[in-house]
Write a structure and sequence with these properties.
This is Kelch-like protein 7. InterPro entries: Kelch-typ_b-propeller. It comes from Folsomia candida. The protein is 6% helix and 41% strand. The strands form seven sheets. It has an eight-stranded mixed sheet, with no helix packed on it. Strands 4-5-6-7 form a four-stranded antiparallel sheet, with no helix packed on it. Among the domains are: 2-76, no CATH class; 100-229, Neuraminidase (6 Propeller), CATH 2.120.10. With 388 residues, the chain is mainly β. It has helices at residues 2-6, 10-18, 63-73; strands spanning 26-32, 37-43, 84-92, 101-104, 109-113, 123-128, 133-139, 148-151, 157-161, 164-169, 174-180, 189-192, 199-203, 212-217, 223-228, 237-241, 244-248, 258-262, 268-271, 285-289, 292-296, 306-311, 317-323, 331-335, 338-342, 347-351, 354-357, 365-367, 370-375.
C-alpha cells in the first residue's frame, strides 16, 4: 500500500505530524450543508494524500472503499491502442536521482538542476542532444532538493527549491543565491505567466502553505503571496497553455479531474470527464506538445507502462502505452523521471525517476539512472508545436 512508500521519507512523516495526524492517518470529512462547515476525522490510510474538500466533492462513500476499488475503476480510463516506444541511451546519470529540475534551452542543451535530499543534490548537469553526453557544469551554493526551474528574459535560469531561489548564468556557468522565499516550497510546481514574462507562479509543496499561490518576479527578485487556492496541493505537476494553467494533483483521491487555473481571474475549477488515474504517488512529470499535455508517472496502481495524453481544448484524456519503459502491473514510476519536450525532434526526453515494486522485498523503491526518449512521431507526425 502507499503508506509503505510514505514511510520511507522522514520529511513526509514530519509533515503529517504538523497536521496533527499520526503517520498512517488521512483526512476524511463530513459536511453540514446548512452551515458549510467541515468536520475532519481520520481513517487508517496514509497521511495527507486523501484530503477531502466539500467544494470538490466527488465521492460520498468511505475513502477506504474507494481506495480498495480504485484499481477496478481505472479500467474505465480511455485507452489508445497506438503504442509508442522508449528508446534508452547508453549514457546514464552519474548517480540515481528522481528530483532533478529539467530545462531545455531551445537548441542543443537540456539542463538538470538539483536533485533529492539523499543524493548529491546541488549539481547542475547538461545533456547534449547532438552528442548524447552528460557534463557537470556547475553547482548550487546550497540545498537544491525537489525544485523547479524557469528562464528569465535574459537567458538566466532560476532554480526554486526549499525556501531558496538560485540564479544560474549558463554563459558563465556561475550561480548565486538570488532571493529567499517566505516558506519552504519543496515538492511544488511552477510556471511562468507567459513565455516572455519574468513572473513565476508557484503552488503546492510539503512544508509551507500548500493552498497558496505565490508569485516571484525574476527581475526585481521579489515574491508575494497572491491568493488562497480552493484546495491543498502537495506534489502537483502543471503546464501552462496560453492564459490557463492545468494542474494534476496528488493530494485528493476523490479528484480525478484536471484542475484549470485562469491566470486572468485566478479562479480554479475542475475540468474534464473525471477519468484520470489517481495521482497518488509523488510528483508526476508533465510536458506540453501543442494543445496536448503528456503526463508521466505518479499514477496509482493502474496500468502504468505508458503516458496520459490530455487535450487542453476538449479536456479529454487517453492512456497511451509505451513499450520498453520496464514497468508492469507490479512496478510503477512512483516518482516520475524529469521530462522535457524537444520540438525539433518531436521527442520527450526523460531522466532518472524512481520505480516502486509492489511485490519485491524492502526496499520497494529504486531510484533510476537511465536516460531515454519517447518519440511522438508515430502518434502525431504533423504536430503543431505552438507554445503560447
Amino acid at each position: 500500500m502507499n503508506s509503505l512508500r510514505r514511510n520511507q521519507c522522514p520529511h513526509r512523516r514530519a509533515k503529517c505530524q504538523e497536521k496533527g495526524l499520526s503517520f498512517h492517518d488521512s483526512y476524511n470529512s463530513t459536511t453540514d450543508e446548512t452551515t458549510t462547515t467541515t468536520t475532519l476525522k481520520t481513517v487508517p490510510l496514509s497521511c495527507a494524500n486523501f484530503k477531502y474538500y466539500p467544494t470538490f466533492k466527488m465521492f460520498d462513500g468511505p475513502i477506504l472503499i474507494f481506495r480498495l476499488f480504485a484499481p477496478l475503476l481505472l479500467f474505465c480510463q480511455p485507452f489508445n491502442s497506438q503504442e509508442l516506444t522508449a528508446v534508452r541511451l547508453d549514457v546514464k546519470l552519474p548517480f540515481p536521482d528522481n528530483c532533478q529540475a529539467p530545462f531545455y534551452d531551445g537548441e542543443d542543451k537540456i539542463y538538470l538542476v538539483g536533485g533529492c535530499a539523499n543524493n548529491p543534490n546541488n549539481k547542475i548537469l547538461v545533456f547534449s542532444l547532438s552528442t548524447e553526453t552528460l557534463t557537470v557544469v556547475g553547482s548550487l551554493p546550497g540545498r537544491g532538493s525537489e525544485g523547479t526551474v524557469q528562464k528569465d528574459g535574459y537567458g538566466n535560469i532560476f532554480f526554486f527549491g526549499g525556501s531558496q531561489v538560485y540564479k544560474f548564468d549558463p554563459k558563465l556557468n556561475s550561480t548565486f543565491l538570488a532571493a529567499t522565499l517566505p516558506y519552504d516550497i519543496s515538492s511544488h510546481t511552477s510556471f511562468k505567466l507567459n513565455d516572455t514574462s519574468n513572473t513565476v507562479y508557484i503552488m503546492g509543496g510539503w512544508f509551507g502553505p500548500d493552498d497558496e499561490l505565490l508569485s516571484f518576479d525574476m527581475e526585481t527578485l521579489n515574491s508575494s503571496q497572491v491568493t488562497k487556492l480552493p484546495l491543498h496541493l502537495t506534489s502537483p505537476t502543471s503546464v501552462r497553455v496560453g492564459n490557463k494553467a492545468f494542474i494534476f494533483d496528488d493530494a485528493n483521491i476523490e479528484n480525478r479531474h484536471a484542475l484549470e487555473l485562469d491566470l486572468d481571474t485566478l479562479r480554479m475549477r475542475q475540468v474534464g470527464s473525471g477519468t484520470l488515474p489517481i495521482f497518488d504517488w509523488w510528483s508526476s512529470s508533465s510536458v506540453r506538445v501543442g494543445n496536448y499535455l503528456y503526463i508521466i508517472g505518479g499514477f496509482y496502481r493502474s496500468r502504468t507502462d505508458g503516458v496520459i495524453q490530455f487535450n487542453s481544448e476538449t479536456y479529454e484524456n487517453v492512456f497511451i502505452p509505451v513499450g520498453n519503459l520496464k514497468l508492469d502491473n507490479t512496478t510503477d514510476f512512483a516518482w516520475a523521471p524529469s521530462s522535457v519536450f524537444v520540438p525539433g525532434k518531436n521527442r520527450i526526453y526523460c531522466f532518472g525517476g524512481e520505480t516502486y515494486n509492489w511485490t519485491a522485498p524492502d526496499p520497494h523503491y529504486t531510484p533510476q539512472t537511465d536516460i531515454f526518449f519517447i518519440d511522438l512521431t508515430p502518434l502525431q507526425p504533423d504536430l503543431d508545436h505552438t507554445t503560447d
